[in-house]
Every structure is written in structure tokens, then in C-alpha cells.
TrEMBL record:
Gene3D superfamilies: 3.30.1490.270, 3.40.50.11290
Domain (Circularly permuted ATP-grasp type) ranges: 73-450
Organism: Qipengyuania benthica
PANTHER family: BLR5612 PROTEIN, SLL1039 PROTEIN
Annotated protein name in UniProt: Circularly permuted type 2 ATP-grasp protein
One protein family per Pfam: CP_ATPgrasp_2
Length: 474
């Protein structure tokens, strides 16, 4: 089962099983294939009943599809996880310090470590946030750091998601499904729990409540509504946290506070976990046509009378051009070299880099700096000559809008198929909670897996699937 040029996380080059998977392999070898096939079908039915779907844009057949779930876990040792968490904590701390600096003294710009034009011309940078510090000093309350693996001790950060990272509900449902299907397996293999994430999220958000909060802070999840691709997650997290699920029409500004409509009138809200983009958050400050947000919420926010998580304006950190400067950003704010390296990145805004990218387009992955979900990108080795030519024209027309990276040899982990186990490429999104005095990293995360043989595209919005992620106990 070795996969040659790609690092196989389960098997060594000689085909033997790595230590992390020894317990799982022993259990797997004892199971009848008919039992495993039946459980594979049971998992799909469970996800269908629960309503775990995601929009796959550009498809004509249906608006939503079931997210494929694979029942072979992705397993990480305790030692590997400790190394990852140190690097993740360092990076997230630097991101939060970077956001504060950008909206205040801009020392990193003055020091010449990051060029000013990267955020001055960036739509995600909000002048409304200049000079304002959110309650508790936290900008990035919930962060998803996308990691890829290329070798035994080789992990790279592929993207930073500091705006509204999604996918945590799938992490939780994956674990719940695995425990329901294979309870005996968790008796044999000691795995760290992820089920307390909602409680930790609620506690972390409450710790960021504004000074005006009285008693237990009131937390609400602000959703765009049932037609949003991640609505399942919004409703799931609100229920699991014991928080209110609200839409913009349920909120209004009353006596200088944001309040939600209840059967007893309007009740003040202290913390809003918003899943609405900046543009639609406040029609008085941003898009005047928005019906998804709350008129006047930014005034209340800037008065320090409500917490918005994540803070408006954090989308700057999601920008892939900013990502290319993360090694400098980490070192500037922490005084340390990054523990988790970036993927090598060429900024097409640089003429020399653009020339290199155009000359080597067939070997590179090119992404829009503001893109997400796998859209607007080119995977050179999989592209046709026509696609390469068309994309080269896009690069020449708008070089500032793109970065390029090498085609990584992403690690593989088996998925279950009717013919047995088969390797597929994957990535990992750990979820990080930030409060004024703590960075809390859930031991696991969302493993996204490409379901097609040889595919490097793992995004759910592009048809990828998910796996349960196990961090082993010591």
C-alpha cells in the first residue's frame, strides 16, 4: 500500500503499518468485509438523516450534496500533536498582534517588513476599525489553520482562516458517528476527545464579553439564514453551545445595546458569533442594501458595548498575499522564527516572480489572493493547454490578484472503498479558540480528503470528503 512519491501516513515504504495506526490496523484486520461495507452505508445514511450537506457550486444537478464521510480515521501521535500545537499557538498569537498593529500604529509597516499597499488596496481592511481595540483585545476569536503534510516531520501551513472559519461541526459529527458505529474501537485505541469543543467555544466567547455584560454573558450566533451553505453548522453550534441562533431581522439596537427579539421583548446580547461577512454586517456602515446584518451594530461595537467574533476587518489575514509575509509577521511579533513554515510562495505582483510563474505555469498551483473554497485557482499539472493559456492571460491582466505555489506532494491516508483501502490526499484544519489570556487548540480538527484517485483538491465545496481526526493519548 505504499504510495511511492507521496508520504503514506498509515504505511511505511515496505508496506508495514506505522506505529500510530497499529491499534487501528489490528482492529480492522479482525472485521468482516461485509460488516465494514454495511457500516460505510450506515454512516452515509446517518449523515443524510442529520442533514450534513454543503453547497457544491457550479453543479446543475442540485444545490446541495451530501458531504462524503470516510470511516478510516486520520491518526496523529501525541508527540506530533505537541509539535503542531506549539507552532499553531505561535502563529495565531502573531496573527492577533498583527491585526492590532494594522489598526493602530502599524509598526510592521514602519519597519518595512510588510508593504503598505497590501492592505491599503485590500477590501478586507476596514477604516472603521482604525484606532479601536475590541473587548479583551482579541481580534481572531476562532481561527482555522490549514496544514498539509509532505513527510514524517514535514508540516506546512497552507492557509490562515481568521475571518469566519467553517467546518468544526463536521469535526464533531465525524467523531460522534465513529463512536456510535465502532464503540469498541475507542476502547482499544486511546484517543483525545473533541466533544467538549462547543463548551470551550462558549467559555472562550464569554471571556471576551464587553465590560457592560452583567451576570452570565448572553451569546448569539448570527447566521445569514437557511440558504447559506454552512447553515447546518450555524444551527448545530448554537444548539451545542446553548446560544441563541439569530438572523439580522431578530436583532436591533436598543438603548445603545444590540438586543434580540424574545417573547418578552428585546434582550441585550453581549457576544455575537457572526457568520455574516463584513460587507453585510451593518447596512449603515457597509453595504446599504444588506438585509443580513444589523443597522447600527458597528456604532455599538466601537462604543465597546458588544463583542463581535471574529472582529470585523480580520479578513486581511486571510489574504494570500499577506500569507506570503507570515514568516516575517511571526518573527516581528514573537521574536522567534516560525515553528511551522509556509509553503513557498511567489507573489505575481512582483515582475520577476510573475515571469517565473508564467514560465513554469504547468508545474505550479496558482490562487486568487482573495479566493477561498478551491475556486478561481489553477492546478498546473492537471490543466489543459487551453486552460494554461487562459490563466496566463489572467495573470498578465491582473498580476496583483494572484500568488503561485509549487505543487505539493500531499501526504495520503487510506479511505474505505468496496475494493478495500485506497490512498487519497488530504489536509488538516485544526480549530483554535483565542480569549484574552488563553489560546485553546482542540486536539484534532477537520481532515478533508480528496475522494478521487490522484486528486489534490480536498475542499468540500469541490466535492471532497471528511474523516475523523484522532490525536492519540500518551
Amino acid at each position: 500500500m505504499a504510495t511511492g512519491e507521496f508520504f503514506d501516513e498509515m504505511h511505511k515504504p515496505d508496506g508495514s503499518v506505522r506505529d500510530a495506526y497499529a491499534g487501528y490496523q489490528a482492529w480492522y484486520g479482525e472485521q468482516e468485509k461485509s460488516f465494514l461495507k454495511r457500516k460505510h452505508s450506515d454512516a452515509e445514511n446517518a449523515f443524510r438523516r442529520t442533514g450534513i450537506t454543503f453547497n457544491v457550486y457550479g453543479e446543475d444537478e442540485a444545490e446541495e450534496r451530501l458531504i462524503p464521510f470516510d470511516m478510516v480515521p486520520r491518526i496523529i501521535t501525541a508527540h506530533e500533536w505537541r509539535k503542531l500545537t506549539k507552532g499553531i499557538e505561535q502563529r495565531v498569537s502573531a496573527l492577533n498582534a498583527f491585526m492590532h498593529d494594522l489598526y493602530h500604529r502599524q509598526e510592521i509597516i514602519r519597519a518595512g517588513r510588510v508593504p503598505e499597499h497590501l492592505f491599503r488596496n485590500n477590501a478586507a481592511w476596514l477604516p472603521d476599525m482604525v484606532g479601536f481595540t475590541p473587548p479583551g483585545g482579541v481580534y481572531t476569536h476562532i481561527v482555522g489553520i490549514d496544514l498539509v503534510r509532505t513527510g514524517p516531520d514535514e508540516f506546512f501551513v497552507l492557509e490562515d482562516n481568521a475571518r469566519t472559519p467553517s467546518g468544526v461541526s463536521y469535526m464533531l459529527e465525524n467523531r460522534e458517528t465513529m463512536m456510535a458505529m465502532f464503540p469498541e474501537l475507542f476502547m482499544r485505541v486511546p484517543v483525545e476527545s473533541v466533544s467538549n469543543y462547543p463548551r470551550r467555544l462558549a467559555k472562550s466567547l464569554a471571556a471576551c464579553a464587553p465590560d457592560c455584560a452583567e451576570g452570565r454573558p448572553v451569546v448569539a450566533v448570527l447566521t445569514p439564514g437557511i440558504f447559506n451553505s454552512a447553515y447546518f453548522e450555524h444551527a448545530f453550534l448554537a444548539e451545542q453551545m446553548g446560544a441563541e441562533l439569530v438572523e439580522g431581522q431578530d436583532l436591533r439596537v436598543v438603548d445603545g445595546r444590540v438586543a434580540m427579539r424574545t417573547t418578552r421583548g428585546y434582550k441585550p446580547v453581549d457576544v455575537i458569533y457572526r457568520r455574516v461577512d463584513d460587507e453585510f454586517l451593518d447596512p449603515l456602515s457597509f453595504n446599504p442594501d444588506s438585509v443580513l446584518g444589523v443597522p447600527g451594530i458597528m456604532d455599538v461595537y466601537r462604543a465597546g458595548r458588544v463583542t463581535i467574533a471574529n472582529a470585523p476587518g480580520t479578513g486581511v489575514a486571510d489574504d494570500k498575499a499577506i500569507y506570503s509575509f507570515m514568516p516575517e509577521i511571526v518573527e516581528f511579533y514573537t521574536g522567534e522564527k516560525p515553528l511551522l513554515p509556509n509553503v513557498q510562495t511567489w507573489r505575481c505582483s512582483d515582475p520577476d516572480s510573475l515571469a517565473y510563474v508564467l514560465d513554469n505555469l504547468a508545474e505550479l498551483v496558482v490562487k486568487e489572493v482573495h479566493g477561498s473554497g478551491g475556486y478561481g485557482m489553477l492546478i498546473g499539472p492537471a490543466a489543459s493547454k487551453r486552460e494554461l493559456s487562459d490563466f496566463a492571460a489572467k495573470l498578465r491582466a491582473d498580476p496583483d490578484g494572484y500568488i503561485a505555489q509549487p505543487t505539493l506532494a500531499l501526504s495520503t491516508c487510506p479511505i474505505f472503498t468496496n475494493r478495500g483501502l485506497a490512498p487519497r490526499h488530504l489536509d488538516l484544519r485544526p480549530f483554535v479558540l483565542v480569549s484574552p489570556d488563553k489560546v485553546d487548540i482542540t486536539p484534532g480538527g477537520l481532515t478533508r480528503v480528496a475522494m478521487k484517485p490522484g486528486s489534490l483538491v480536498v475542499n468540500s465545496s469541490q466535492g471532497g470528503g471528511t474523516k475523523d481526526t484522532w490525536v492519540l493519548k500518551d
